[in-house]
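Hi R.,

Here's the input for the calcium ion complex you asked about:
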Amino acid sequence: MFTIYSFAFCYWYKGCAPEAQYKKPDSEHLSITTAAVSRPLLPPKERTMEKLLPGVLLLVFLSEGMTHSDLGGKAFIFPEESNTAYVSLIPRLKKPLKNFTLCLKAFTDLSRSYSLFSYSTKSRDNELLLFVSKVGEYMLHVGNAAVTFKAPPSPYAPVHLCASWESASGIAELWVDGNPVGRKGLQKGYYVKQEASIILGQEQDSFGGSFDAKQSFVGEIWDVSLWDRVVPLRDMCASCYSGNVLSWQALTYKDKGYVVVKPTLWA
Ligand SMILES: [Ca+2]
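And here is the predicted structure with calcium ion in place:
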């Protein structure tokens, strides 16, 4: 329903071509509003519509039970194992990803496998998946292919993970708590498709569903960010969570089942 409303609005507004929705950012803090400001001057009536656009889109989101919020200093808590609790994330821009950088922080005491970030498309359930296969083993999936990185576990502390991938070389890089744990190659020349269901808390085996409680996340996740480019991970700071695709400081999401938002226990 949201998609129908959005497209209807786009056609009426005549301004939703990809190049009109989004300009390449000069900084990490681009928003729809600032993108609109960078466009050429338009007649007064259309300028008014430009100002209204984010608000109208926001209302459409909210009417569908979604929340738009600055979650800085807060975390999603998944308090118990289930195949029903999850959070759907709505990206700030929709585009195929020839490169990406994904960062998040998490705390869990699970010793089984679990999903940290599940981005599925209708053709590939593991289009972009960050998965822990067992304690200290991180799997990054791109287009249903996967590489594994091993990192010593630290069970009594949260983990800060950042993964990047570039299509041109296929090189994926993972950093754990500010330390590199290697580079591996997968899916050279591929690009991550844009029509995605992005879910925290569950691992999708089909678009938006087919969850397995034994792969669910139990614990806390926060500071989730996704960029459409390779951000040098050596320079990634602990408080860098304003991705241009997903930003923790301007997150649109919908939670289902037993999920609680609370201030983070860790910085
Ligand atoms: Ca899957």
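One thing worth noting: Confidence is low (pLDDT under 50) at residues 1-43, 45-50.

Cheers,
M.
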